[in-house]
Amino acid sequence: MDIREKDEARGKLESLEERVRLLLSQSQDREFTAYLQNFMQRVIQQKYQTDLLLDELERSLRMYQNKMEQPKSGSYTYVSANQYVSSNQYVPSNQYVSANTVPESAQIEKPKKQMLGGSGEFAVGAVLLSVLGGAFILAALVMAGINYMNGFVRGMSLYAFSALFLLISEIFIYRRWKILGSVLSAVGISGLFLSTVLNYLVLHNFPGWMAVLLTAVIMIFVALLSRKRDSAFYRILGLIACYLCFIPIGVGITDAEFLVVCGMILLTNIVCVFLPVNNCRTGVNILHMLANTVFAQIFIWRAMWCQIAPEPRIIFLLSSLFVLQLLLVTSARRGQKTEGVQAAYGISGVLYLSIFCFEIAMHDRESLFFCWGVLLGIALICLIGFLLLLKHKEKWCIYTFANLTLMILALFLEGVQGPIFWLALLVIAKLLSAFRPVFLLKVNDVILTTAVSLMALAFRSMPAGPEDLLCGNLLLAGVLVSVPFISFFHPYYQILTTYTTAFYLMLLMPAMLKLPIFVGVLFGGILLFNNVSRWRGKNIILFNALALAGQIVCFLCLLWPGYRNAYVTYLCMLVFGLATIVITFHEKYSMNFGNKSMITAVFLTYMALIVRLGPSVVNSILLMLIALVGVAAGFVEKKKSVRIYGLVLSLLVCGKIVLYDFMGAPTLQRTILLFSVGVMALVISGIYIILEKKNALDQNAPKKEEEIPQ
User: Fold this and answer.
1) Does the CA dihedral 569-571-572-578 come out positive or negative?
2) Quick check: pTM over 0.70?
3) What transmembrane ranges does the database entry give (predicted)?
């Protein structure tokens, strides 16, 4: 190359370099900018022909311009002059270099196309058949060991076959075919656990403690292997196989041997917790929780069937509960999303609570040491978990579980110990929910307050002695004292507190005063919660409606024949009913029903109809009096509907007298009835005549002339 050609080439390179810098300053695409930076390095190094670089830059620039002109069609990354991929895939910057300008050593190897990936054929051929094949091989090994070998050699051969199978799968097959290797390794792992069960139950090669130890060792090995392979499949398989092995081993053993089994189960669980797998860690923890809980249920029932003492069974349950708390703690402290773990924790907590209650119920109730031991054990385990999660929100899951569990188990305490325990839990729940705005704490407070209210009514409705009455009084006092702490869910707490107090006091009263005291408490609740600003919110109308509905039901109960001669009951109910209408039917109480006079007239009519004051003529006189008052009130308040109601009621009373009351009544009663009703009818008629004349005079009176200014 002569000097002239060298100068032209140098000029092209300089021009190309300036153009790349200009494009870099104008680029608005991250992938194209990275490509230009890579391109600049190649221009500076001058390892490629200038013409090839110019052609490549022109093609890439056209692709970039097309991309900028069509922003809605998707974002694309330039891989070469005639190739692009979706931008949601990561592409290194050196993939922008054209294949014809990059040396073979710098070219990126294209991924090989997977055969049958994601198809049904692949699922059947690679997965299902491998599982079936592995299961058949395992069954063949078991049959061969049982039928063609004897004694110790037979048992050890089962271990040897399973271990060799696992070794070949992990060393040779797993590296090349991961899925097939995983399935075959799972067959080997299952074979190791199955060999232990067969050696213990069928071949009797070693005692129970040896089987327990071998099962624990195999599980620890599987935990280490799953940790190394980061395989959630290995971990779940090992846990389930380990649990299934421990169930038959725990048959026909003593209490001491049962405790040894419990210790090994706890050890294997702790190893699995502290050797987690990163792949599907949340799912593994959820399955571990549920498997641990279900196994605990099954194992306890088997222990009861084997007549294991209650104390070792409770120790096992406490150790299983400790594993449950540990799984929640590790999930939260490792920064996982714990929504699913919390749900599994709640389900497991309910199952543990049921089995704890059954254990205490089956035990001698006179032994307070046993019951208190269970309560303190659960409290200690939950306290440890709470302290470990002190800086995490998941600690409230543990607190809620502990609170509800201890509350239910405290039912088995004798005397006043249970109510005092509930009151302590209620005070703590109220304080926490008042000062910590956590939804779970609010729900816990609602559940606990509701339970305490129901237990107060239960103690009062079925008193077996003075202690039960004292317990009921203590619980009701706790509910009432907690009223000032109401700061959320106002309508629910107002309804709960009011109705609990009403039912409790109703149970204290004689039969004739039950309805009046109930209506009186509801009336007092309306006055209290509507006149305190911190309890009066936009939902106060819900409480008022339910309190009013309770009063209406009580007034309907007056139709029961047992109240036929209960005049004190009628009088008290009449007073509370009128007080409710007069005082609370206002806008301040969100019960402004408009025509309050009409409501009062209807209420008085109902009370006059159902009251039994001797002869029926008395009811007619009362109804006629109500009609008279209704007409007068209608004229005074200028409400036509009330006047019409009083007029119609007076006519109906007159009809009732002629058709019903007059027939068969003594002469004196007839005389009094006719005279009283006649006088009131004349009064009503006189009211209409006087007021009609007055209205006519008002309409015919001349209007005053307006003074005209001079």
Assistant:
1) positive
2) no
3) 122-146, 152-173, 180-202, 208-225, 232-252, 258-277, 284-302, 314-331, 343-361, 367-389, 469-490, 502-529, 541-561, 567-586, 593-611, 617-635, 642-660, 672-691
